[in-house]
């Protein structure tokens, strides 16, 4: 089954698209829902400036990682961390990824809880505090 080139191509393509969808939903869910409050707290001028500033920093850090990967000929971030830092780098990458995913899930659960509590209270007799 795995030796079939068509199956391997479909499997790799579906993994790529599921990764893209998961990362996009995480970023869009946490950022877009929090953006109005951030702009309200900072004001339009400072908020837009900070938005572009952190977008620029994100771009620079990604370009830096890609250049490091090209330099040492590694195309996997985990392997890049292991090659540059050693076994501790690979461990650090895995722990930081788990923490990132945990934090993203916590923020999504908070958002879902805030959005569902109001409508759910109208269908039940309990009150939301």
From TrEMBL:
Record has Transmembrane as a keyword: yes
Membrane topology: Multi-pass membrane protein
Keyword Nucleotide-binding part of the UniProt annotation: no
Segments crossing the lipid bilayer: 16-36, 42-58, 91-112
Keywords, comma-separated and alphabetical: Amino-acid transport, Membrane, Transmembrane, Transmembrane helix, Transport
Residue span, Amino acid transporter transmembrane domain: 15-116
Location in or out of the cell: Membrane
One of the record's GO cellular component terms: membrane
Entry superkingdom: Eukaryota
InterPro entries: AA_transpt_TM
GO molecular function terms attached to this record: L-amino acid transmembrane transporter activity
Name of this protein: Amino acid transporter transmembrane domain-containing protein
Species assigned in the record: Cymbomonas tetramitiformis
